[in-house]
């Protein structure tokens, strides 16, 4: 069987051009990640100061009314979900910055292929290419249902 024809002669030049491009892309993405990380941390702190992260059981029992209690529990669930989302965001940004520092950034965690720039620009903390992310979400969805 014959191997496919080699890539064009200028593949090497293109690679150099891409490396320059890569550096500027990475600088932009690092800035975006820093910004997102700060935003998420600030929001998280604001929520935690409001006592959102304290479970209802841990609060002083001053709500005698059952209806009040239900409302308090519901409010807790809402802000708890927000705290969880923010904490996930913080750790995703931290992991992405970690990968940047170790020059492992931009490769899909599952298939190892480079994640396309447009996807990274839209979601700097993305750990997977679109296909693997879909597969991953399908898996965790199934797990959540089990
Ligand atoms: Zn992938």
Q: What do you see in this structure?
A:
Helix content is about 65%, strand content about 0%. With about 150 residues, the chain is an all-alpha fold. It has a single domain, classed as Up-down Bundle (Four Helix Bundle (Hemerythrin (Met), subunit A)). The model has no long low-confidence stretch (mean pLDDT about 80). The structure holds zinc ion (ZN).
Fold topology:
Elements: H1 11-49, H2 66-101, H3 117-122, H4 130-145
Helix pairs in contact: 1-2
The structure holds zinc ion.
Zinc ion binds next to α4.
Produce a short descriptive summary.
The chain is mainly α and 146 residues long.
Write down the CATH topology.
Four Helix Bundle (Hemerythrin (Met), subunit A)
- CATH architecture level-2 label: Up-down Bundle
Q: In percent terms, what proportion of residues is strand?
A: under 5%
Regions with little confidence, pLDDT below 50 for 5+ residues:
none
Query: What is the approximate shape?
Result: elongated
Average pLDDT, rounded to a whole number, is 81
Structural class: mainly alpha
* Number of helices, where a helix is a run of at least 4 consecutive DSSP H or I residues: 4
CATH class term: Mainly Alpha
Order of helices and strands: HHHH
What is the straight-line distance between the termini?
A: 47 Å
Instruction: List all distinct small molecules, including ions and cofactors, that are bound in this structure.
Output: zinc ion
Largest sheet: none
Radius of gyration from the alpha-carbon trace, in angstroms = 22 Å
Q: Give the strand tally.
A: 0
Count the domains. 1
